Amino acid sequence: MSERILDLAQLVVSELVTNACKYAPGPIVLRLRRAEAAVEVEVWDSHPEIPVAERADPYRVGRHGLEIVKAVAAELTVLPEAAGKRVTARIDLRPSA
Q: For residue 97, is it within any domain?
């Protein structure tokens, strides 16, 4: 795996886990896996609210985490669960065109 992919995965983990720690009252589960031609970063937390990336605003201080994840991930999904939600970001392993 390239250094670039490792750096992107680390960034995505940092942003998603930081968000979960800030907003979820209970436990957090992190799962990393290689799935086909991608690395999947999955974070489950106990907070039921579905996060929404805000519009880009260069003057806003903070709250850019989901924007960053959306920018570097090939796919981002947020699924509600019986308790909390599951956020999954897929980082493409194939070279970008």
A: no
Instruction: Name the domain count of the chain.
Output: 1
pTM of the model: 0.88
In-domain check, residue 70: yes
Map tokens 């886990």 to a residue: 17
Give the range of the structural domain holding residue 47, as residue numbers without chain letter.
3-92
Q: Is residue 55 part of a domain?
A: yes
Phi-psi region of 14 (alpha: psi -120 to 50; beta: other; left: phi over 0): alpha
Name residue, tokens 């980082």: 91
Number of Cβ within a 10 Å radius of residue 49: 11
User: Are 74 and 90 a contacting pair, CB within 8 Å?
Assistant: yes
Q: Mind listing the pLDDT tens digit for each residue in 49-77?
A: 998 877 777 787 777 789 899 999 999 99
Q: Which amino acid is at 95?
A: P
List the end-to-end C-alpha distance of the chain, in Å, as a whole number: 18
% of the chain residues with pLDDT over 70: 97
